[in-house]
Every structure is written in structure tokens, then in C-alpha cells.
Amino acid sequence: MTLTLERPVHTSTATTAISYRGLTPQQQNGWHSLETATYDLEQAAKAGANVIAELLLAHATAALFLGVDLPAGDTLVECSCEGCPEDCDRITAFSECAEYLDGDTQRPQCGPCAKDHRRYGD
Ligand SMILES: [Zn+2]
Ligand SMILES: [Zn+2]
Asked: Ligand 1: distance of its center to the CA of 2 in Å?
């Protein structure tokens, strides 16, 4: 019997942003796990822990799982644009986003949103 080994296909499907609604349920769960992990790490950081390596590792791993091209040292965020006609749910690299102030919280706004309807906060 002869086995023909298929070579792994290296498609360049790397993308810099994905839609949350377009994820599989498994990927959505993965995203929520990342959000929880990020929150926990941020709390630890506020308490003085050095968590940057853990944070970047968690985000790099999630980016692979979600199929997003994430630059080294960057983190993933979901656009939390308000007043968005499309109810934007893009998950993208933080460096691609703008930020606006919602009360006293910094919220990310993805590149296309910032271009179309940039928010500057209250
Ligand atoms: Zn928007
Ligand atoms: Zn957006």
C-alpha cells in the first residue's frame, strides 16, 4: 500500500481583521477565553505583576487560532465603535485601531470605522 502524503497547503489567507459574527462557535469561545484572560492579566498588572509576556503569548496564540495576522508585540481587540451603521464587530490588531474616550474608559475603534466615523469621546 502506498500512501501519498499531501503537503500542507500554505494559503496566504492571513488577514488583518475578522468579523466576530463570522467566527465558528469554537472560535467565538476562544475569543471569550482570550477576553477573560486579558482581563485577569490586566488586573494582575494593576496589582504590580509583570504580565506582558503572558499577555502577548495569549494574544499571539489566539491570533493563530482565529486566523488573524497579528504583528509581533501587538494585541487583539474587538472594535467597540458606537453609533456604527454596521454595528461593527471587527477583531483586529490594536495597532490598527484608534481609541476614543467613553466616560473614563479608552475604547478601541477599528481602522475603517475611525476613517469613516471617527469618535473623539464625550
Ligand atoms: Zn463604526
Ligand atoms: Zn469598527
From this structure: 54
